[in-house]
Amino acid sequence: MTSIEQAQRGFSPAGIYLNTATFGLPPRASWDALQSALMSWRDGTADPASYDEPLARARAAYGEMVGVEPSRIAVGSQVSVFTGMVANWLPTNSDVLIAEGEFTSLTFPFFALGHRVREVPLERIADEVRPETALVAVSAVQSADGRIADLGALRATGVRVLLDTTQSAGWLPIDASQYAFTIAGGYKWLLTPRGTAFFTVQPEYLDALTPLNANWYAGPSPWRSIYGSPLRLAEDARRFDLSPAWHCWVAAAPALELLREVGVDAIHAHNTSLAAAFRDATGLAPSNSAIVSAEADEKVPELMAEAGIVAGVRAGRLRMAFHLTTTADDVARAAEVLGGHLR
Fold first, then answer.
1. Pairing between β-strand 317-321 and β-strand 312-314 as defined by DSSP bridges
2. How far apart are CA 180 and CA 201, in angstroms?
3. Terminal-residue alpha carbon distance, the chain
């Protein structure tokens, strides 16, 4: 196992970085692997087939973190692509339940395909499940403000769930085997480059879903099944793989392996304790999330710029994310600068 303190030595933020919910920072091992791959690309010495190795490592590390076998994980580049595949599988005009204010990559495909989409408050999503509800599509952690869904209550309804773990995988313990489908964009809490995403699927849905983006990499032996017909796809979830953006996966593997070595439970404890300390120091209401969302006064942008604090703005509120890269000193300094300016 790798400790939090050991892992933190591999990051090089220029200031106080509280913006992982927008874009995670790469560990040094990811940066070095990417630079090496770029050099071989420039020199003309790269072997495209060699990129399969870091992709396989990334798939395996992600599987260990979310509790499923690599054979049940498809890889791609964007959340919306996998969402669209699930939306296309549902019968026309299906009853789909989503949370109000949900991130649109998880919802637009259902609207675009003409399903009956019902938007309800996140806190009532389990209560709003009906006998005719075909699917609940919800984020484990809301992008706008960090609220955490009551996943236990949702599972108790027995409804099929498409769970977006983009804002949770990497810090919130998630067992992907408990949901029909899960999707995660990797470039936030998983610390991988943009252009990496994971899709988990229960075995009973493998043959039901249509691989709308079937391609050479979804074949049973990608480098030997790249020409001609008939259609032949992998027997497991790799049939839903998208052709990989190679360099993204070179950098993804070391990041995911680092998170796995530290452990999601340890990261969860670290993140939530830092977020709680910040809330307490600034007088904000308690929460169990690693994301802190608050109204900020007009002085905050200048104060943050002067102190080298980086955070995001979502839904008109300041959004701060506390992750593996954040230290107790970061929290103390951010609270000192922003105290009295948030509510």
1. antiparallel
2. 6
3. 38
Cα gap 319→302, rounded to integer Å? 16
Which distant-in-sequence residues (6+ apart) come within 8 Å of 169 by Cβ?
62, 65, 66, 184, 189, 190, 198
pLDDT the model gives residue 307: 98
Using the predicted structure, report yes or no on whether residue 315 has a pLDDT greater than 90: no
Are residues 300 and 342 in contact, defined by beta-carbon separation less than 8 angstroms? yes
Inter-axis angle of helices 328-338 and 300-307, to 10 degrees? Answer: 140
Token output for 157: 């309804």
As a whole number, mean pLDDT of residues 311-321 equals 94
| Two structure tokens written together for 310 | 């980086």
* Residue 197 near residue 77, CB atoms below 8 Å: yes
Amino acid identity for residue 238 in this structure: R
State the maximum Cα–Cα separation within the chain, in Å, rounded to a whole number: 66
pTM of the model: 0.97
d(CA 237, CA 235): 7
Nearest to 222 by CA among 206, 203, 208, 242: 242
CB-based contact 245:195 (threshold 8 Å) = yes
Q: Which helix (H) or strand (E) holds 95?
A: strand 95-99
Residue pLDDT, tens place only, 186-213: 999 999 999 999 999 999 999 999 999 9
Would you say 181 and 163 are in contact if contact means Cβ atoms under 8 Å apart? yes
- If one counts every other C-beta atom within 10 angstroms of the C-beta of residue 342, the result is 21
